[in-house]
# Entry
Amino acid sequence: MHLIMNVQFSERDSLCILTSFGNRCSFATDHDDANEEPLLEATGSEWYWQGIFLKYTHTFR
# Structure
């Protein structure tokens, strides 16, 4: 999941913020191979933060 925000400070200055989140499942039994996952019982999920990107823009006239 991605979240994009644009903050306008003034007519000439703005900040764009892009952040990314991911999630993964928790399973009731341990397993060694990802191919086994469709056959396993999921017990929950976990969200984690992947990264952030900032872009500051100033426009000269």
Notes: The longest strand covers residues 42-58. The mean pLDDT is 88. Strands lie at 2-8, 13-27, 42-58.
